[in-house]
Amino acid sequence: MPALDPTSPRPLPDGLVLRPARPSDLEQIGELLTARGEEYDAEDHRLVVEDPAAGWESCAVVVDGDRVVSTATLLDEELQLAVPGRDGEAVRLPAGQVELVATDPAFEGRGLVRELMGWAHALSEGRGHVLQVMIGIPYFYRLFGYSYAIDIPAHRPLSAPPVPEALEGYAVRPATTEDLPEARRLQAAAQRAADLRMPHSPPRWQWLLERHGSTTWVVERTDPGGGAPVVATGRTTPPQDDPVLAELAATDQAAATAMVAHAHQLAAAVEDPSPLVVWDRPGSVTGEVVDRLCGPAPRQAEQYYVRVPDEVRLLDRLRPVLQARLAGASVDLPSEVVLSTFGRHVRMSLVDGELGSPRGGGTMQSPGVDGGAGVAPDQLGALLLGPHGIIGLSERHPDVYPGPHADVMAALFPPVTADLLTYYLP
Ligand SMILES: CC(C)(COP(=O)(O)OP(=O)(O)OC[C@H]1O[C@@H](n2cnc3c(N)ncnc32)[C@H](O)[C@@H]1OP(=O)(O)O)[C@@H](O)C(=O)NCCC(=O)NCCS
Question: Whose CA is nearest to atom 23 of ligand 1?
Fold first, then answer.
């Protein structure tokens, strides 16, 4: 059990109290989120806490008497990392995502979000999450053990809008609950192009239909025989404000193009329109459409934050993937795999090609002496889930190196492509 009980109220300095949120806090939390964040935050928060699948226990507040002065919410997520060579098989990584964070300006800088992050991480641990992933303001969340690790999809400006005829033979409409099985199937197919996937959680699919901060669309093909199969989906943000088309998924390129054409028409129809930005999905059917219609993404790096609370537990979860990677590599195997984060280290035995359970140990400054690799703790998320792999990271960071068994480490920790679906569109 975590040291801190996330379900109990906890006194903080100056008479403030951190406690789980209650229905009577709804209005104040909504006002605080809207004042400090975005127009749709209050609605997004309400959809989460009023859904029993997430519930009020997902949210905490700091109160000064009856006044809500700070808040945060924890969402349940699941990342899935593909097991190479085993079609469709993936290791499941239960994860938490902190969202909807805000402090009243009069109470800023007193460590209230630090306390709320402690609450969220204790709750996350209690729920069996083996990592946390999040989108957040730059730098801030590094203070709470997060590092940038997983690429956010490239945001590519639409440079060659499809002609209106691209919509002929298609009908585009907002998705309804009845469309969710098809939308989920299309998303799952698109996500299979990536090694690491995070689908929308079942309750989030419903929140997405109800929220006004974005619209989830389906594209139906009007077949001559009278059928109208759903052949594409996508999610747009309100067209008047930096419109985005994200989560584009389709059975074929023509259907994907119809979705882009519809999003372009929405974006172009407002007064003083801004160009549509389309999220790339390389390797999927829609990736080729985006390549054809869009210009290059800005060079600015965009990544999700990751926090790895316990590397031994996470590596144990990842063992089937690591095992399959070794099985697929033609390398001479050492008798154990050693990975040091310098302040601590992990050992996994290798007997007859079988990777044993990870065992944690203490400080190890020179893992190369034991045939091991070194990785700074703030690069561990990037090593396990990021796009560079150990070799790419070692070229960027002096405190990441593969050690004497570089070929084994390169096989164990290759670049990982990712496709994460999130409540907010970063
Ligand atoms: C960002 C925000 C949530 C911080 O809340 P807060 O309660 O003042 O944060 P804390 O006092 O717990 O800050 C913890 C630490 O981060 C520092 N810090 C605060 N805001 C920071 C920022 N924007 N960037 C970097 N450091 C920051 C604090 O000084 C403190 O440092 P310390 O522990 O060394 O003393 C608050 O300013 C806010 O609501 N901003 C507007 C909404 C927003 O951006 N929400 C986040 C969306 S992801």
Answer: 140
